[in-house]
Amino acid sequence: MSRRFVLSRRAVLRGATGAGVACVGLPLLEAMLNSNGDALAGGGALPKQLLVYFIGNGFRLDRFEPAQTGADFTLSEELAPLAPVESHLKVVTGLQNWCAYQFTHHEGMTAFNGYTCAEAVPNALYSKAGGPTLDQVVADHIAATEATPPIIKSIQAGISPKVSIMDSGTTMFALSHRGPNENLDPVFNPQVIWQLLFGEFVDKPDDSELRLAVIDSVRQDANKLRGRLGTVDQQRIDAHLQGLSELEMKINAMPPSCMAPSQPSETNPEGPSNGALTNVNNIMADLLVKALECDITRVASVMFIGGAAETTYTEISQSTNHHSNTHNSNAQQAVHSGVVYSMERLRDLAVKMRDTLDPTGRSLLDSGLILAGSDCSEGLTHSVARQPYILIGNLGNTLTGKVHHQATPRTGTPNQWAATGNTSDVLYTVLKAFNPAATSVGDLTPQQLQGGWYGTSNPPSQAAAGSSTLIDALTGPEFGA
C-alpha cells in the first residue's frame, strides 16, 4: 500500500530568481489534511472564522421571535430575508442581559463581551467597555495557538457613518474592544479597509527594508516613553506596539495564494441621506469574504448601523431616522420595515460566505460563523429582556444545522414576556467552539453561566433559569462545560 503524501501547512513554493530565492505561500491543500479531511495532518484543527455583525436599535420581538422552537421552526417576518441561508441558521431568544447598569442602549452592547460597563455614568449616558469583546478573545486565541496565524488578527468595518448624538464614552461607538481604553473603532471607508487588508500585497517598489528600519526605531522610542507614563497611557502604548508588530508581520508576509481584489471607488462619505448603505455593505462584504477566503484574517466585525444611531433608511423611502422611529409608538411599522431592510443586508453577507469555498470544498458558512445582534431587544422601551442573537454558520461542525432555541418561553402579552437565561451563554458557546479549554467568558463565573444570574438584586431561581446550558442545547452534551 502506498503511503499517503502529507504536506505541512507551512509549506511554500520556492524558486530561484536573479535576486535570490523567492517564496510563495500555498492555499490549504488536501495533502495538508488528515485522511478524514477534518483536521490538519499534524493534528491541528482546521481554520474557523468569526464575523460579528451589529444592527443598532433592536427589533420588533412580536415579529422577530419564531413561533416554534427546535429544528423545524418557521422563519418569522423579520427573519424571512435569511431564507437563502436557512439551513445554517441558529436563532436564540428569551435571554436576559444581566449588565449591572440599566441605562438605555449601553447595557445592550455588553452582549458582545460579557462584561458589565466600565466607568458608567448612567445619567450622562456615558460608559466604556468593561473588557475585551468576544471577537478579540477569539482573535487572541487564534494568534496564540496557531502555528501559522493569519497576517491580520482582526478587522473592523462600519457601514453607516451616522452615530448617536446623545451618548458618550466608547461603548456605543465601537463593536470591537480590547479593553476599557482600547476601543477598535469601525472603518467606514471601503478604500481604507481595502488598504488595510490588501494594500501590502499589490505590486510596488521594494522598500520593506526601509519600513522595517522605521518600525524598529519607532518601537525603541515607544519603549523608552512607556516607562514615563501612567497606567492608562501605558496600555495605549502597548496597543500601539502591538499594532507595529502586526504591521511588521504584514511587511514580512508572503503574498496570499489568492488574487487580491481591485481597490473600490466608494469612499462612503457621511452625508444627510445614507443613500449608499446597500452598496457599501456589499463592497465591505466582498472585501471581508475575500480576506477570509485568503486567510488574511479569520476575525472581523461589521457595524451596520451603530447603537442608538441616527441612520435614515432612505433606500426604503423613509425620511425619519431609525432611532427616532423606534421611540415613536405610531412608527412601529416603519421600525419593522427598517429591521427587514437590515436583515436583507445581513443576508447579502451570509450568501457571499455561503458561496465562497475554501480549498477543501467547505463554504465559509460551514467553516465559519456570523454572530449577529443588537444593543437592545426592542428600541421602543430600551429593553434588554429577551435580547436575541442570530447565528449563521456551522463553525466547523461545532454548531451545525438549523435551530431556534428559546431560553424562556413567552407567556402573556408582549409587554409581559420575561427572560431568565443569560446572553453570555451565547458568547461562551461560540468561544468554546474556538477554545474547548475555555471555562468562562467576560466577568461571569461558570456558575453564573449555568443559567444563573448577574448584576441584579432579584436573581431568578436556578429552576426558573433551567438546568441545561445553551451549549448543550445547541451542540449536544459532548460540548458542555
Verbal overview:
Helix content is 30%, strand content 14%. The strands form five sheets. It has a seven-stranded mixed beta sheet, sandwiched between helices. It has a three-stranded mixed beta sheet with strand order 6-7-9, with no helix packed on it. A hairpin with a 5-residue loop joins strand 10 and strand 11. Helix 5 packs antiparallel against helix 6. The radius of gyration is 23 Å and the shape is globular. The two termini are 42 Å apart.
List the helices and strands and how they pair.
Elements: E1 12-17, E2 20-25, E3 49-55, H1 61-64, E4 89-93, E5 95-96, H2 105-109, E6 118-121, E7 126-128, H3 134-145, E8 155-158, E9 168-169, E10 176-177, E11 183-184, H4 190-198, H5 208-226, H6 231-252, H7 277-293, E12 299-305, H8 322-326, H9 332-354, H10 364-367, E13 368-373, E14 389-392, E15 403-406, E16 421-422, H11 424-434, H12 446-449, H13 462-465, H14 470-475
Parallel strand pairs: 3-12, 3-13, 4-15, 5-16, 7-9, 8-12
Antiparallel strand pairs: 1-2, 4-14, 6-7, 10-11, 13-14
Salient structural properties:
3-stranded mixed beta sheet, 7-stranded mixed beta sheet, 16 strands, Alkaline Phosphatase, subunit A, alpha/beta, 3 domains, 481 residues, disordered C terminus, globular
H/I helix tally: 14
| Oligomer designation | single chain
- Taking all Cα atoms into account, the compactness measure Rg is 23 Å
As laid out across the biggest beta sheet, the strand order is 8-12-3-13-14-4-15
Helix content: 25-40%
* Topology as a string of helices (H) and strands (E): EEEHEEHEEHEEEEHHHHEHHHEEEEHHHH
Largest sheet, in brief, is: 7 strands, mixed
Give the number of DSSP strands. Answer: 16
CATH topology of the largest domain: Alkaline Phosphatase, subunit A
Strand content: 5-15%
Structural class: alpha/beta
